[in-house]
Amino acid sequence: MEGSNMAENITLTVSRYRPEEESEPTFQSYDVPYNKDWVILDALNYIKDRLDGSLTFRWSCRMGVCGSCGMMVNGTPKLTCAVPLSDYVSSGQIRIEPLQFFPVVRDLVIDLSSFLEKLSSVKPWIIRDDEKPSSEGEYLQTPAELDAYKQFSMCINCMLCYSACPVVGLEPEFTGPAVIALAQRYNLDSRDQGAAERMAVLNEHEGMWGCTFVGECTKVCPKNVDPAGAIQLYKMASATDWFKSMLLPWGSK
Amino acid sequence: MPFWWWLQNRAYFNFIVRELTCVFVGVFAVLTLFQIRALADGPAAYAEFVSRLKTPGFILFNTVGLAALLFHGVTWFKAVPTTMIIRFGETRVPDQVIAGLHYVGWMAVSAVIAWILLLR
Amino acid sequence: MTRGLTPFLWFLFGAGGMVSALLFPVHIFLIGLAFPLGWFDAPDYESLRSLVIHPITRLYLFVFIFFPLFHWAHRFRYTIYDLLQVKHGAQQPIALLCYGTALLGSVLAAYTLLTIA
Questions:
Q1: pTM of full prediction above 0.90
Q2: Chain B contact probe: residue of A170, A213, A225 with most B CBs at under 10 A
Q3: Domain holding A93: CATH number?
Q4: What's the structural domain count of chain B?
Q5: Which residue of C has its CA nearest to B117?
Q6: Contact at 8 Å (CB) between A71 and A108?
Q7: B8 and B49: one domain?
Q8: Between the CA atoms of A168, A170, A173 and A179, what dihedral angle is there, to the nearest 10 degrees?
Q9: Closest Cα of chain A to B36: distance in Å?
């Protein structure tokens, strides 16, 4: 086409892994028609619909709220429903791989059972010593009390932060950014009374102390949760607890 | 995880460089200790310490070290606001304001020290 | 042994990071570059000694050395874990070496600053 740098096709190089056939992942290239309104997920669905029905990947809402479609795009973890093809039209190269630091089940699908175990370990729900009966009405919360935890509640469990964090790669037992941020979401909720329980779980090397504030988790988070910030606040809270227990041993917890 | 994982992308490399500035922090703390000990040992010992600071090796080390400490300071002031959330009522003090106040404090403290060391 | 102390050691790391970020650049610039290169007149031995023996200066210099040493120890310890991929079992000796060195330097600094006259 004259007068425009509009490509007709764009090449996606996709990681394939079929455990029943091979022991290692391989790459397969597909030529996909370039459409300036498409995102990478559209291209993957084109491949599955028209070129190769065996390609396996997760997706759902296609609008950045379900957290299903996370993959490595040219080495960076991204939500494929949120990345336009036009970002790559000049280089013409798009490499798609499953989220790193997770075992691969098939093609672009990862095994996220470790994440789910870590998530339940921090009891991500309102913990109360005493439950109010519903006849007494709702738990009331001021806008300021909501602000205290709202940012950390935005997490969609997409696990991009796990693929960005080198500690997750170096130490697989590390609880990880999203789970610690979600623990904070409940710790900082005025209705919650479970901070001490969660502190006991996360005040460990595999908990918050595995974090060395690389900061990549916050950089890749598609919902601006700032998990790095959540973890540093948690370290500050732990240090404060330590001084309180040293200087005021008779104080109540 | 490959052994050279930190060379794999720019962000990981910058992270390791940032962390390794702590080596210069440790060395300068120790050098300061040696300088104080030289001071305590008398004028001859102190003069010897000072003359060693003038050697090209030390000048180079101090130049690289100053750059490392400045890099440490800039990354530190960028990171500190994430560890503190300060609210006035419902508004949260922006990160840039907190960082900015640290820079102001840094310049004020540096000015005081320079005044003490230069006007004696 | 360092496990229960981790929050405290992190606090020392934080304090040391702040002390070194705020104070080290001007000290390095003057004492490490400006004075040796003759850009400014260095203070002479007597005036420097009388400055250092002042109790406030002794305290300042202890803070100047103590917190940054523990900042180095804590940060260096974890960086070694990451760079050399040290597994859990081998981590304890590295931690003890780092904090031990910082403690040694701090004790020496305290002794020097208490006895200088």
A1: yes
A2: A213
A3: 3.10.20.30
A4: 2
A5: C43
A6: yes
A7: yes
A8: -20
A9: 32
